[in-house]
Amino acid sequence: MADKRTWKTLLQDKLPKDWAAEIDEFEAKIVLNKQGKVEPRIFAETRLRRGAYGQRYDNGHRNDGKQIRKLKYPTEGIWKGPDTHWDAPGMLRIKFPWGGLTAEQMHCLADLAEEYSDGIGHITTRQDFQLHFIHIEDAPDIMRRLSAVGITTREACGNSVRNVTACPLAGVCRTESFDVTPYSKAIFKFMLGHPDAQDFGRKFKIAFSGCVQEACGLVNMHDMGFIAKNVMVNGKETPAFDIYVGGGLGPVPYNAKLLFADHPVEEMLPVTQAVARVYGRLGEKKIRGMARIKFLVAKLGIEEFRKLIVEERKILPFDPRWTSTITECLKEVEKPSQKAGNLKASSFPKGFLDWKKTNVYQQPQYGYVTVYVKVPLGDLTSTQLRGLADMAGRYVKDTVRTSVEQNLLFRWVSEGDLPSFYETLAGLGLSGGGANTISDITSCPGTDTCKLGISASRGLARELSERLDKTLSSLPEEVKDLKIKVSGCPNSCGQHHISDLGFYGVSRKSGSFTVPHFQLVLGGQWKNNGGSYGLAVAAVPSKRIPETIERLTGKYVKERNKGESFQAFVARVGKSAIRETLTDLMTIPSHEQDPSIYSDWGDPREYTIADIGKGECAGEVVNPYEFSLSQAEAKSFEAQLKLDQKDLKAAVTLAFESLVLSAEAVVRSRNREYVGEAAATVAEFRKHFFDTGEFVKHVNNTQFAAFLFKAAEQKLDDPNPDEAHRRVEEAQLFLEAVHSYLVNAAPAAIPGA
Amino acid sequence: MGQGTAMDLKKINVKIAVEKGADLPLATFIPLFHRFIQDDQLEGMLIDVAEYTHVHQGPGVLLIAHEANYSLDETDGKRGLLYAQKRAGEKGSEEHLKTAFRRALQACALLEKENVGKLKFAVGRVQVQVNDRLGAPYGSGTHGELESLLNPFLNWLYDGEKYLLLPEKDPRKLAGFEVKVEKPFELAALLKKLS
Predict the structure, then answer these.
(1) For a disulfide at A426, which of A250, A332, A431, A692, Cβ 3.0-4.6 Å?
(2) Partner residue opposite B58 with nearest CB, options A74, A110, A381
(3) Which positions of chain B have pLDDT values less than 50?
């Protein structure tokens, strides 16, 4: 093998020139960084904009279950970001706009997962793929190999326009107004690297939906979204968009606001450009936690924001690509590779009919169906990826899409091919039924690989899926269709806010130990583009979540009114009654009684940070801060109940009281005797814990403390529903942050801990 | 050993087949790998454990290290201990081969010790692959070079006993061979030789 062969020379004719130049530039930055010529902070943003993310333990510390172990990465003194070791494994996020991928691309992913990662390609909740445990120095070659098959990682992370997502059924959907695929392609092409999208304070996510009533592209939770509709113009049915802005999940979810209704599709790109300009110019830049466009829209109000966009649109210099990009994309029409057919066989493979019930969608095009390939936790091996690529070639050509539920969709399967399609899938171990049911659980990476993970979301999702797969056929129909979504922390990557049963990772102290928990979120809606957001009801130890689900679904089946949805049931019964059902599960047994509670799913390490030793008074004397914390929990919950009762003012008042009590807990952790009024408590917290960096250091986020300060400054005497919802959510999140602080802060700082 | 070849086996995979214990739940190995990290029981810079028990015929459970991944791999439905070298120094192919075999066998020995009577590795059934499509693209040239590197090493390791080298048949997979040694060997004896 000649030494001079490199991927760069080997692929030089296959890469688009601008993509090749960008990768070369990135490779040069790697060299410069290794020479100490780039600031870690600058290099971090550089790599993030190219999809190269950090991963858990890249700060060089890991709790091995006995102690915090220093990871001695070989390359000392070189960093790929602040406090991020050069040699630490990282993640590479690979964008698949609108979730579309070809057989050739699947083969490429298979090779890359095998050669550089851990043999797994992971589908994300935004239709991307991720490779984990990547070395930063391998990233340029991976990018070249991806580029050679038409994939870029550019702007997959960082403060940029992230992957443009779209309903995976677009073009084959029975209820869509029109196929949004060409428009999502156009916006991806137009905005990638656009100069007006390079100065954001935070990421910017765009989604497309073909219809209003289905989950579709989940426009309600996006920074910017487009819902297709047909309008009459001069007596002729014409495609148009309802354009939304300012939605988003994250710790505090915001509903998107209607920016323009019935907007001409030709105006899609200039409007997006105008929004990018206004966001780039007016969006928050300093406080990262307040920098998403949702905060700007909420601050200005949608009317004012709309006015700014209209003004900006008027002064935009004309760009011929506004229409040419769309025209070009409209020419790319997806076609089936096989003739339409019908199911004819009288005997089908074992399991086929059950699988067909949940995993096959009848397209409006006669003789064609879309198959949902259920991918457990979104993980595919190289062998499976190659097998799926072969299936794409054989059955559908390049019409495969990823979904935000971490599955794959094979569109345009001739119905007559279904039995053999199923058997081929079975050979790959991918013929699992129950797609889009309660056993088809979405999860973010959580503590497996994410730096922010608090609880093992994948571990929980794996456990729940396995249990529910076994019982699925015997579950009542009304339970089968429920959605479960799990996030490892409040940041919502698992989209817990818009599921029937949502969970996000939190932790709780119990004596000198820390216990992994999940906060149960109820009331969310998946349909209607992620139509409404749920609220936290109760924090339950991780190991008791399966029982929590059994109880809740059991209660639902037993007590529901005829035809009542789970969401309506929760609203009718009330969170208080639901919480009562779970009271015993929320109580933490002692370590002696049940040590299994003190570790997380799939991870036998004791869930504790080793620098929390057993204090002299552990488990015996209650520190006053615990009383404050307990009161804060109660107030937060009461606030949620008031919100449910539409008593918005009371909800906001209680939320504020919870915020202050949480702050009081922090102050009392240092000063047991502290007593003070709300304003004094906020001032004490600010002076001793925020301004000193103490609180932020231990919760790793400035946003949570900002919730307290904002509430203290803006009392919201006459709150609207959105404002009240947010204030209540913020109180809960600040409370969680205080829990984290009390777990993470040095024990010396917490008498009695 | 390996004279006259330009191939540098930096990214080498060595997978030792499981003889007994293919039915042990994969989850059995999760606490063991965590303990290997706690007690520094394997060579290299050990980082974390990754679980893929939910994946059909996948990497199973991995111990991620800086230099390599150790896993209870089930690719193609065959369980084995896979040592997948990711980063090696400049010691040359012979040393890299030795290191990969030694570390794979060390992991096998530890796992057998933890599962006495339940788990046994067939140390004469080994899959060797080059995990580098650039340096070792699938093809007869690569297989020829690899064979010329492997033969002297395998002759030395297995005391000149007969063995078969079966090349990978699927051109989309990594270039490599399945090694089948006719005479059974003891794990400890091979390890002693490699130490």
Answers:
(1) A431
(2) A381
(3) 1-4
The partner residue sitting opposite A604, judged by closest CB among B34, B75, B142, is B34
Please tell me the predicted confidence (pLDDT) of residue A347: 84
C-alpha closest to that of B6 among A4, A367, A492, A507: A4
Contact A193, A155 (CB under 8 A): yes
**Among the partner residues B27, B31, B69, nearest to A118 by beta-carbon distance:** B69
Which structure tokens are listed for B140? 């007869």
B4 belongs to a structural domain: no
Query: Running along chain A, 753 residues long, what does each successive block of 10 average in pLDDT?
Result: 77 94 92 88 88 91 88 91 93 96 97 97 97 97 97 90 96 97 97 91 95 92 97 95 94 92 97 97 86 94 98 97 97 94 88 96 98 98 98 95 98 97 98 97 94 92 96 93 94 93 92 91 92 92 97 96 94 93 96 94 79 28 71 84 88 94 91 85 93 86 88 91 92 90 63 38
Kindly determine whether residue A74 and residue B66, on different chains, have CB atoms separated by under 8 Å.
yes
Nearest C-alpha of chain A: how many angstroms from B150? 16
Could you say which DSSP state residue A392 is in?
A: I
Instruction: Name the residue of chain A whose CA is nearest to B13's CA.
Output: A115
Q: What is the pLDDT of residue A622?
A: 52
The predicted pLDDT at position B5 comes to: 53
Do A1 and B69 make contact, defined as CB atoms within 8 angstroms?
A: no
How many Cβ atoms sit within 10 Å of the Cβ of residue A286?
8
Q: Report d(CA A118, CA B64) in Å as an integer.
A: 8
Report CB contact under 8 Å: A135, B87: yes
Contacts of A12 (CB under 8 A, 6+ apart): A20
List the single best residue of B26, B38, B53, B55 to mutate versus A (max A Cβ within 10 A): B55
Answer whether A64 sits within 8 Å of B37, measured CB to CB. Answer: yes
Instruction: Tell me if B70 is assigned to some domain.
Output: yes
Q: B38 to chain A, minimum CA–CA distance in Å?
A: 6
Q: How far apart are CA B96 and CA B88, in angstroms?
A: 7
pLDDT at residue A252 in the model? 81
CA distance B145 to B12: 14
Residue of B64, B76, B136 with shortest CB distance to A89: B64
Residue B1 belongs to a domain? no
The answer to whether B145 contacts A1, with C-beta atoms less than 8 Å apart, is yes
Looking at residue A608, what is its pLDDT? Answer: 58
Which residue reads 């922090």 in tokens? A666
| Chain A: residue whose CA lies nearest to B173 | A111
CB contact under 8 A, B56 and A384: yes
Pairing of strands A52-53, A61-63: unpaired
A134 close to A52: Cβ distance less than 8 angstroms: yes
Each as own residue / partner, the long-range contacts of residues A8-11 (CB below 8 Å, 24 or more positions apart, any chain) are: A8/A140, A8/A141, A8/A144, A10/B134, A11/A144, A11/A145, A11/A147, A11/A148
Number of independent structural domains in chain B = 1
- For residue B159, the enclosing domain spans 12-194
Domains of chain A with CATH codes: 7-147 (3.30.70), 172-331 (3.30.413.10), 352-427 (3.30.70.3340), 448-611 (3.30.413.10), 614-753 (1.20.120.330)
Tell me whether residues A603 and B30 touch, CB distance under 8 A: yes
Residue of B nearest to A430 (CA): B56
At A701 the pLDDT is: 76
Residues of A within 8 A of B133 (CB-CB) are 111, 115
Give helix A302-315 / helix A293-300 axis angle, nearest 10°: 110
How far lies A365's CA from each of A57, A167, A179, A420, A495, in Å? 50, 17, 13, 20, 32
C-beta atoms of A376 and B54 within 8 A = yes
Nearest residue of chain B to residue A4 (CA atoms): B135
